[in-house]
């Protein structure tokens, strides 16, 4: 069965990963701009990174028959210096019209500071003023609940937001209901020690339904698994879910969400129009 | 069409994994105890003990409650609270 990984950091992965993902049925990935594990020293580094995401990574993926899309943004980890973040945000509009740019992301909060909030508001404003979809990173561990609530507060206070064009990512048991009740898509990330496991993700599908759920690996430069989505599919099958239900979560849903982005150019291998 | 497993089927499938996780937790507690010093005042140790109590509780929704145990509080007035 074909699948889509709607959140993976391809720039951190090897060609071996791409080959095995392709063999497992991956046909489409979305790569959000994020933190590289160290702070960048200037706006030029971001500019080059944005070029890498929009020019080079799509070509690397294409070699394996994987279509590559991207989200443009500045991660909360680098949002604390508001002045610097604003310089980076000024770089973004020139990239937003490029093919297969899905919108503004992954943006969000990390330690939920005032400065992070100021940067995040500027990013949300950029997205809304150019009618972009948004992908939100929610904080890790003890900060997740508070940060998710704060992000949803910011969105609720902004009348221009259409929650159906927003994904709240890295949801877990205590935050998934919040995202869904706000009318947003809820992303679940499968990670080895933090975030969710395939079993717990299947639990959430069974508890909340798969109507607006997206499942991703968020595989990056740290301990993570680019085959996390197929692992989840296998778990779903073991638990008695049929192919249509599995396909909805790992293929139909991400496709439906991405199709709401104006620059999305993917043609599914089955020929159905994008 | 998806038909959820019966409780007995789920227990059957999960028993060995559950058992292994419990033994692992027990061995980890022993390992902490064997080390020099007493971590009982460490707030993280207290959280882990509270987590164990939560596991043993009869009420449902344990995963969500366990997550909340390890979460910072949220103040709906955070916008006006200058300490954030
Ligand atoms: Zn990410």
Question: In percent, how much strand structure appears in the residues of chain A?
Answer: 5-15%
The 3D shape of chain B can be described as flat
The CATH superfamily of chain A appears as Metal-dependent hydrolases
**Largest beta-sheet characterization of chain B:** none
Average pLDDT of chain B, rounded to a whole number, is 91
Chain pair with largest interface: A-B, 24 and 19 residues
Low-confidence stretches of chain B: none
Quote the average pLDDT of chain A: 96
- How many DSSP E strands of chain B? 0
Poorly predicted runs of 5 or more residues of chain A:
none
Strand tally of chain A: 8
Put simply, the count of helices of chain B is 3
What does this structure look like?
- The complex is a heterodimer of chains A (274) and B (84).
- Chain A is of the alpha/beta class.
- Chain A has a single domain (3-258), classed as TIM Barrel, CATH 3.20.20.
- Chain A has helices at residues 15-23, 43-62, 82-91, 93-96, 114-129, 144-156, 176-181, 198-208, 228-238, 243-258, and strands at 3-5, 26-32, 67-72, 101-108, 133-137, 166-168, 185-189, 213-216.
- Chain A is globular.
- The mean pLDDT of chain A is 96.
- The N and C termini of chain B lie far apart (48 Å).
- Helix content of chain B is 60%, strand content 0%.
- Chain B has helices spanning 7-34, 43-56, 62-69.
- Chain B is an all-alpha fold.
- Chain A binds chain B through residues 112-114, 141-146, 149-150, 153, 172-175, 200, 203, 206, 239-242, 245, and chain B through 1-5, 63-64, 66-68, 70-74, 76, 78-79, 84.
């Amino acid at each position: 069965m074909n699948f889509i990984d709607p959140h993976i950091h391809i720039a951190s992965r090897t060609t071996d990963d791409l080959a095995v993902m392709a063999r497992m049925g991956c046909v489409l990935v979305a790569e959000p701009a994020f933190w590289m594990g160290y702070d960048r020293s200037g706006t030029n580094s971001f500019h080059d990174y944005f070029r890498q995401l929009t020019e080079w990574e799509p070509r690397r993926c294409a070699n394996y028959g994987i279509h590559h899309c991207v989200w443009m943004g500045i991660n909360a980890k680098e949002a604390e210096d508001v002045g610097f973040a604003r310089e980076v945000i000024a770089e973004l509009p020139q990239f937003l019209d490029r093919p297969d740019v899905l919108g503004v992301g992954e943006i969000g909060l990390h330690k939920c500071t005032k400065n992070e909030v100021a940067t995040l508001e500027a990013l949300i404003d950029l997205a809304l003023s150019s009618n972009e979809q948004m992908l939100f990173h929610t904080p890790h561990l003890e900060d997740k609940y508070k940060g998710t609530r704060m992000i949803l507060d910011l969105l609720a206070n902004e009348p221009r937001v259409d929650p159906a064009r927003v994904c709240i990512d890295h949801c877990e048991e205590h935050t998934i209901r919040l995202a869904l009740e706000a009318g947003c898509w809820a992303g679940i990330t499968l990670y080895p020690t933090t975030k969710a496991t395939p079993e717990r993700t299947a639990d959430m599908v069974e508890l909340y339904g798969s109507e607006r759920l997206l499942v991703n690996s968020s595989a990056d430069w740290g301990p993570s698994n680019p085959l996390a989505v197929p692992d989840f599919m296998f778990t779903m099958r073991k638990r008695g879910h049929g192919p249509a239900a599995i396909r909805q979560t790992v293929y139909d849903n991400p496709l439906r969400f991405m199709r709401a982005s104006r620059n999305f150019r993917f043609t599914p291998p089955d020929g159905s129009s994008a | 069409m998806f038909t959820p497993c019966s409780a007995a089927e789920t227990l059957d499938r999960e028993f060995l994994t559950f058992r292994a996780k419990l033994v692992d937790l027990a061995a980890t507690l022993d390992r902490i105890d064997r080390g020099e010093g007493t971590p009982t005042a460490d707030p993280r140790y207290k959280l882990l003990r509270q987590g164990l109590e939560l596991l043993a509780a009869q009420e449902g929704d344990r995963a969500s409650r366990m997550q909340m145990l390890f979460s910072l509080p949220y103040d709906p007035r955070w916008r006006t609270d200058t300490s954030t």
